[in-house]
Amino acid sequence: MGDWIGYLAFKSFKRVVNFLPKQISCWVAKLLGSLAFHLAKRRRELAVKNIKLAFDCSTEEARELTKEVFQDLTVKFVEILGLEKWTEIDFEQKIEVEGMEYLKEAYQQKQGVILFTGHFGNWELLGNYLTVLGYPMNAIARMYQNSKINQEILQIREERGANVYDKKGRGVKKAFRSLLKKECLLILGDQDAHSKGEFVDFFGRLASTPKGPVVLAQKTGSLILPVYLVREDLNQYRLMIEPPLQVAKDATAKEQQDKLQQLTSSLEEKVREYPKQWLWLHRRWKTRPEEAD
User: Fold this and answer.
1) Is the pTM of this model over 0.70?
2) Which of 101, 135, 228, 291 has a 20 to 30 A CA-CA distance from 109?
3) Beta bridge partners of 42
């Protein structure tokens, strides 16, 4: 019963925000974000703590940025719900690209391409855009608990031809095969990886980081490209593609860690530039080195 209520609320909200002009729907989203900021005490306090430690700022400054983070998340959700209405002209006119030559060259080498990003900017729009450009896109993602909502979101993600695999079960194997077929694989590599991760520096603190991008690159011979798609204005976005990283088949553990640090440092640089567009609300530094021993 709970799933049905949640699903009906989701469908109603989707219809409303897709009916409203973009400016008004984003205004509504920001109001909801402000409400969530006041109601979600634990997440709010966690974000404030993370931001204070990352930027060495005051509590007041951290709270203000945290409020903007909540608003960005709700606006992002509204943007995702409206992706089905985007035309090829929308993608062409609304997204400015920097570094597209790196992706073109990497894909032409037919080695497989791992696109590394984080819970930063609009990663859902990123996957849709690259699919529209004709790249064979695959992604690993966490599925929603509500199966009916999950099916709706999955349809948005895969509508233009991308494949989205569950990070649990056989999803990782399917993603691995996509690289062997010389396709593109989008990976969000910025959540706490518990005892299975590699500790690298992120905002001056050691963070347990998923090794997946580097391990997959080593095993498949794929190139890794850091990619980030951020919102610049209401209907304007910027896609930033950085030069590729290559992991040798015989790379040592230290060399693999260095590559992971390069990726993490790349993400940190972008988060510093667009701080409200990263997910400060999750426990990124939850696992400590002494707990992983």
Assistant:
1) yes
2) 228
3) none
